[in-house]
Each structure stands twice: as structure tokens, then as C-alpha cells.
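Action item from last week, closing it out:
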Amino acid sequence: MAKKEEKKEIGIMDLPGVGAATAEKLNEIGYTDLMSVAVASPGELVDAAGMTESTARKVIVAARNTLNMGFEDGNSLLQKRNNVMKLTTGSKEFDKMVGGGFETGAITECFGKYGSSKTQIAHQLAVNVHLNEAAGAEPYVVYIDTENTFRPERIIEMAKGAGLDPEMVLKHVKVARAFNSDHQMLLAEKIGDLIKKDGLNVRLIVVDSLTAHFRAEFVGRGTLATRQQKLNRHMHTLLRLADQHNLCVYVTNQVMAKPDMFFGDPTEAIGGNIVAHNSAFRIYLRRGKKGSRVAKLVDAPNLPDGEAPFIVKTEGIRDLK
């Protein structure tokens, strides 16, 4: 029994090559437990703590061995899937298209032109997280705002439309304004502290928008590799949070027009394969007829492609009919 208790108490400082100074550096960047180290890449630890690549590999291997990480059978994963929560969008057609709502444990990306309701969906999810009993008594939302689009007045309107106390909903939204890509990445890394140190029941992370700063700061083909590398690290941080804490990550993305596209819709999301591969669900938003919007599911691991029309009213997102 004593040995089992000893194993539970093993921390980062018990790993070979990690002293007090190194552990402090890792903690500052967001590597606060064995799991966060075990799923990191050697390059990430080299950047975070200034250790050599060989030391970083030894640290990661030791963390993985301590956690006894390995393969799981399908039944174990099915049981884990039973804990997945679905956050409603407010539109039954939209929910049906995405399998019942936006999933926890994964990243969902919505991309589209300005005015396609990406931010409206962000606000609606921040309200609707309180409608899911499985989210707990006091679910929190962390909203990383990169384009100054968060509006508390909109939360109030949607909360009233959902029959919720607006003051209570606003109290459970933690908003941070990111002024550049490094600040944005740092804010994402600090969410782990809100969960572990502050004990907040975070159930939704919103990044609106994911690529705005990266697109503005890294201009030209010469900076593309650096941009994609940083973006990949940022998305891995978000994915790790989603997986470890069973929370929903919703990111909005900007678009561009492909100049070599002569037929069909030339609209393409920013971020290339890095964003595409890290997002479990990808939804393309566009304007429809008579003020409506259309959501098109373009990628999902377990769902067919589909479309769902919806409309944005004062009280929130609703079905078109």
C-alpha cells in the first residue's frame, strides 16, 4: 500500500535531469504534471527549459514510463466516449449535423468570411454551456479574444433568451484580450492553472480568432515555416487541455480566396494542414438567403458531410423554420 501511495506522489522534480530551477521553468510554461511532460515533444521542452535534446528525451521517456502509458482496447475508449458532453448551438438542425452538439475532448473550428456568425456561435456556446447538466453546477468559459469581438451585452441577450440569469452567466466567463501571437499562446498555457490551482470547472475554451495574429505577424513565404510551427504548438496546447480535462475547444478562423480556383467556392481557411489536422470538426459558415446563415460540416471523424441553415436572432441562434 505504501508503494502505491509513493507512486501517486511522484512529480516533475522526481524525473531524471529535472531540478528545482528546471521544474520552475516548466511550470511557468504550463508543464505542471507528468502527463503534460509525457505528451510533449523534445523540442518543446528544449525551448521551455533550455535543456539539451537528449536530456529532454530522457525526461519524456521517464514521465511516460511512470504513467505506464500504452495501448487501450476499444471497450475502454468506448467508455471514455460515454463521458463526452455535447454543447447545443441553439439550433436543432445545427446540432443534428454535428452529432448532437459541439463535443468536449476535441477542437471544433468554424471558418468563414466576416459576418458569417463565427463570433455569434462563440457567444451562444458560452451561454449554452449552462444548459448542460453534465457540465456541473458552475461551468466556466475561458474566452481568448484576439480581435476585440467579445461583447458582454450579447451574452446578456442570449442568456435571457435561454431563460438563464445574465449576471450569473457573465460571472462564469473569463475573458482575456490577446495583443499578439505570443500573448495568445501564453494565455492558452495559463488555462491549466485556472483549472488546477484556482479549481475552476472550465468546460469551454473559445479562441476568437485563432489565426488573426499569426496571419498579421508572419508575412511572406520566408516566415511561413516559423508561423506554422508556432501555430502547431498553440493547437497542441489547446488539444491537450481538451483531452485531459474533457472540455470543448471552439476556435474561429479567417479565410482567403484561392487564386487558382476557377470553378466552385474559392474560399479556404487560413492555417493550412496544421489547423485542419488538429481540428476534429471543421465547419464552413456562409451567408444564406434572407439574412440566414448556412453551416456546412466539411470534416469530422465520425459524421458525414452535411449542411444546416440557421438564423441569428436577438435571443440567440435558432432554426430557420
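Closing note: The longest strand covers residues 201-208.
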